[in-house]
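Dear colleagues,

As part of the handover before I leave the project, I'm documenting each prediction I ran so the next person doesn't have to rerun anything. This entry is a single chain, and its sequence is reproduced below.
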Amino acid sequence: MSEHIHKSHNKNLLLYHLVCPIKYRRKVLNDEVSETLKTICLKISYRYEIHFLEIGCDEDHVHFLIQSVPMMSPKKIVNTIKSLTAREIFRLHPEVKRFLWGGKFWTSGYYVNTVGQYANEEVIQKYVQGQGNQKDYKKIHSTQLKLF
């Protein structure tokens, strides 16, 4: 379960469900690339105020359950995640580039929703955890970070 973030002048609990498809819906998220993505996301957590509560990978898209602060707009969160993960995946897995021409890893579009508007956190968390269960590949889950 997520916890409130306490700042000097505010206390917040902002949760986002983010879905990012791979460019051309290519199936490039194998076990190794998924583990790299998880590692990159944990590094993003330490540098930025973006906390990954859950990460669920399908072969051609990723679901994130994210907590952040009001100073970071959802667009800024998405841009940070997509740019840093794409750069590092291309650097660490150059073989992925042969499936994706044009130098783009993610599509330009994405889905983002505040958790609680249509469902509560537990419903979204179970949904994200269930990603990839239809296939024989593994899903990854980020451990909840206790940085607060």
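The longest strand covers residues 14-21. The longest helix spans residues 74-92.

All the best with the project,
I.
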